[in-house]
Q: What sequence folds into this?
């Protein structure tokens, strides 16, 4: 934008001189020119470009690093909760499992991308976003449908929504070949988290960055247990967590301007699973160990103004061990060990025959395997091919994006029955229209069809698996309006509004229901979802050095179970889906410090299928406060001090029934960048 402002000023001055100077030129001496010269007052020209959130053809929400820090976001899950239309299932505590679902379609319909490559879990179909560190995140974005970039893998188009995590890339201060970043955080419930990052530039074309962090917490926090009219204060037990994360990145650009990036990632954790609160039985002995390693590479080559290629490759290894000590097991203990491996490649070719029209073809292929210690395990192997053909047209205020994704999967098993091969075509079409070129006002519409193949657990887990399951089929419709002001007022920097109404339908929903002796997975569900998402962002100049940023969003969702007209829960709201939810934030930027305030509100929900009072979970409001200040030193370094208070009013609430969330907590962090 700075470059554009300079060009605007240059053009303005050129027109001013050309339009108002005399046409006839006379020779003058240098002295007369100096004597007749006048000082021209400075002219400020402000250019305006709509934000990507406003101009996106798909509903899109973003949070950048500065906002994440200034608002005191504690984790990736904490930040994702601030997006409209998102449900994060949180099983309580620092180490609790956290999964994300977009517009009540389910976690298995929401993809998670880490630096452009999707993260997978073929065993369970949902990603625990609690394992991703927020310390190295540059931007979080959530797109309904898919992102706007044509250079995306076919896997990114195959989901109903995608959460993208983009990590920091090295930016070296002028004249320096390295920098480092160190942070130490501590807080309530035994929380401690040091982290370290180091980047080195070996040449103008090659750089590397290494980073690692450690986190531990005992997770022992008080909560109130109600038993009729009796209330007692208890302490949450077996909620401890200890984790390590190490990551290395390589960046290289070739002489032909092509680029290569590589990443190695390792995560390891041990945590207690506190389980649901049970009267008169506070004992919980479930433990979970996780290990995850992956390495991924991306090669980007632009052959000409018309042709571009992106190639991706990834190997992913996941291992987990679950252990429970209980007299109900033979021998008094149960141990389950699972190992997943994935081999993944993707190639995306983009062709732009003319300036307003582009096409891309993405081809993905991957192999997934699962091994475990369960008796008679089929040890499945899945081969998947995804193909996405895309077209993007931008002309005269119109933006049209079309996609057709083809899926083919086949499973092989060591023993037992295997499901039939699956083939499916999923189309999508989205468009936006800007009626007036002078106004940042857009009308957008979206249609998208997706389906999810049953997970390994759905098909093969012990006696509950069902190899005859059909994939879930989901259809999304969206109509929205977006608008942003021109920053003409001296006190107003930006004001943006978005409103999206949507209708989703899921057929052949996979659910567990009781048979004669055990629960069994079956296609027994049909769900309709009506909803509305509204967002607001505004930024104000209060005075010299004083600014205020305001953000807020509201979500209405009516997610109804239409499975069985004769059932008692017919047309009842889906479990754990609030009809009303929203959040707001207020950030004051002063010359001395930044002060941020956040509010999150969630309406009542039901934890069982029937919407009766006995199954109701009360709504709640959670407040947060953060104060931070940066201290520059030696011109190339900075010290940042930050203090956060979460759940300021010490409200006791539950996201999942019988899993009480922590009350008021605090955190202090010190960060040095040099």
A:
């Amino acid at each position: 934008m700075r470059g554009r402002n300079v060009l605007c000023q240059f053009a303005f001055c050129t027109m001013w001189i050309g339009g108002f100077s005399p046409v006839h030129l006379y020779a003058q001496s240098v002295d007369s020119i100096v004597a007749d010269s006048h000082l021209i007052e400075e002219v400020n020209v402000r250019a305006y470009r709509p934000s990507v959130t406003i101009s996106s053809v798909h509903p899109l929400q973003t949070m950048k690093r500065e906002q994440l820090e200034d608002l005191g976001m504690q984790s990736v899950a904490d930040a994702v909760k601030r997006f409209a239309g998102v449900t994060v299932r949180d099983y309580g505590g620092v180490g609790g499992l956290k999964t994300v679902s977009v517009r009540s379609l389910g976690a298995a319909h929401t993809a998670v991308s880490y630096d452009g490559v999707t993260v997978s879990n073929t065993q369970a179909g949902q990603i625990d976003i609690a394992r991703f560190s927020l310390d190295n995140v540059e931007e979080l974005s959530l797109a309904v449908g898919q992102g706007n970039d044509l250079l995306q893998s076919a896997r990114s188009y195959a989901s109903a929504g995608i959460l993208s995590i983009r990590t920091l890339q090295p930016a070296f201060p002028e004249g320096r070949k390295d920098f480092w970043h160190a942070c130490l955080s501590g807080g309530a419930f035994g929380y401690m988290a040091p982290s370290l990052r180091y980047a080195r530039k070996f040449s103008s074309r090659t750089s590397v960055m290494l980073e690692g962090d450690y986190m531990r917490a005992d997770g022992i926090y008080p909560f109130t247990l109600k038993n009729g009219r009796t209330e007692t204060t208890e302490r949450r037990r077996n909620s401890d967590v200890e984790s390590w994360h190490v990551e290395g990145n390589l960046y290289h650009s070739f002489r032909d301007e092509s680029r290569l990036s590589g990443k190695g990632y390792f995560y390891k954790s041990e945590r207690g699973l506190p389980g649901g609160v049970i009267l008169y039985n506070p004992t919980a002995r479930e433990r979970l160990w996780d290990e995850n390693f992956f390495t991924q590479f991306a090669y980007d080559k632009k052959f000409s103004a018309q042709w571009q290629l992106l190639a991706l490759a990834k190997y992913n290894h996941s291992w987990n061990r679950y252990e429970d000590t209980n007299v109900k097991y033979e021998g008094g203990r149960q141990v389950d060990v699972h190992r997943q491996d994935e081999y993944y490649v993707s190639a995306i070719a983009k062709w732009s025959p003319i300036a307003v029209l582009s096409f891309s073809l993405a081809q993905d292929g991957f192999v997934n395997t699962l091994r475990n210690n369960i008796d008679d395990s089929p040890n499945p192997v899945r081969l998947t091919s995804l193909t996405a053909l895309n077209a993007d047209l931008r002309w005269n205020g119109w933006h049209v994006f079309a996609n057709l994704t083809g899926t083919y999967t086949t499973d092989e098993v060591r023993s037992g029955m295997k499901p039939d091969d699956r083939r499916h075509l999923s189309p999508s079409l989205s468009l936006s229209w800007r009626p007036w070129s002078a106004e940042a006002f857009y009308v957008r519409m979206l249609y998208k069809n997706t389906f999810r193949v049953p997970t390994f657990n759905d098909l093969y887990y012990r006696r509950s698996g069902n190899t005859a399951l059909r994939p879930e089929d989901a259809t999304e419709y969206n109509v929205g309006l977006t608008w942003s002001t021109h920053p003409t007022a001296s006190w107003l920097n930006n004001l943006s509004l978005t409103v999206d109404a949507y209708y989703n339908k899921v057929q052949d929903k996979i659910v567990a229901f009781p048979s004669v002796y055990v629960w069994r997975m079956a296609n027994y569900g049909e769900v309709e979802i009506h909803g509305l998402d509204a967002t607001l962002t505004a930024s104000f100049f209060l005075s010299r050095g004083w600014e205020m940023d305001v953000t807020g969003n509201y979500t209405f969702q009516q997610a109804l179970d239409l499975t069985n007209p004769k059932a008692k829960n017919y047309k009842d709201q889906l479990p754990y889906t609030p009809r009303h939810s929203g959040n707001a934030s207020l950030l004051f930027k002063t010359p001395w410090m930044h002060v941020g305030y956040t509010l999150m509100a969630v309406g009542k929900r039901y934890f069982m299928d029937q919407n009766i009072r006995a199954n109701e979970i009360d709504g709640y409001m959670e407040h947060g406060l953060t104060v931070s200040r940066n201290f520059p030193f030696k011109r190339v370094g900075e010290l940042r001090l930050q203090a956060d208070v979460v759940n300021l009013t010490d409200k006791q609430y539950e996201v999942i029934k019988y899993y009480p969330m922590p009350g008021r907590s605090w955190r202090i962090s010190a960060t040095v960048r040099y």
